[in-house]
Amino acid sequence: MALEHAILVSLLEQPGSGYELARRFDRSIGRFWTATHQQIYRVLRRMEADGWIAAEEVAQDGRPDKKVYSAAGPGRAALAEWLREPVEPETVRHELAVKIRAAAFDDPSALISEVERHRESHAALLARYLHGEERDFPDLAALDARQQLQYVVLRGGIEYERMTLAWLDDVLATLRRLAGAGDEQDSEFR
Question: Which one in 6, 33, 108, 161 has a CA-CA gap of 20 to 30 Å to 83?
Fold first, then answer.
């Protein structure tokens, strides 16, 4: 997926300025596609030049005018074409998992603080997702088609974080058990 597609989806959900779009990436789209503010602005300029999006100047009181972007016909056509293309299953590169395996050849307790740090990060992300679920989807029975699709993506993120936390808890228990066994083995040789 190109950043252009993520931007088109966001603009179809709601037109906005580059700043507003960058904030949306920070809040929601960033859950599954990250981009810096500079990348977003650079791609917006290119998309506007290619006719994929249209920009409207909006006057603001006491501030410079802003450009509000919306998806244009060619952008909608590009998104429709991309939507019909097959998606290859993603290959996972997981450096922490390789380090966990490597701990078999060193001191397993050396990874405990790193795994705890990852666990804290995933717990915080899960809390953000759950807060977003409460805030954005209070009445599940009243969701329109767009909201249902947004919600199913959020639920995937929630379940992924829950699964990751369960796995990290298992990793921590294993590392602590092995670290304790290592302490016992060390004392036998003293």
Answer: 161
